[in-house]
Amino acid sequence: MSPLWPCRAVLTFSLLLLLGTSLPMMADQLPPPEGDVLLRVTGDIDHPNVGDELHLDREMLLSLPQGVIETSTPWTEGVGRFEGPLLSALLEVAGTQSEHVRIQALNEYESEVPVSDFHDHGVILALERDGEPIAVRDLGPMFVLYPFDERPELLNETVRHRSVWHVGSIHVP
Prior knowledge:
By secondary structure, the chain is α+β, with helices and mostly antiparallel strands. The protein is built from five helices and eleven strands; from the N terminus they run αββαββαββαββββαβ.
């Protein structure tokens, strides 16, 4: 038996424990939301929970794997600490293999975003800024956020148009 066996066993157990805690959110059928629906995911998804759509309330969104981005933006003052679910994790829960999605704001503005952005840049659906929920008057309740300060090359017209605020729905074609 290798002297590294105890370390590998602990690592394997830790990974299984971590995966076990995320399994309820990865189930084929998520329960319907108990709170107010903040986000609807429609279209070609494998894991709907209300008819053929995935509806998520704030608690469900907060239970997804989260990301933190500390950045300034063209629409806010100063550097903020933004937190919210990773969009890559959200699409995994929805069960989609699409290469792009259409993100629509509450005012019906929409932008087509390549899913590769979510994986390549750790894009989040920001729900909080500096520990507080983002109000509708301040780009909320949700905001597609890229790590602009960490990757200044993303601060271009194309990515700014993909950074939808007042997000209400995501459509998977």
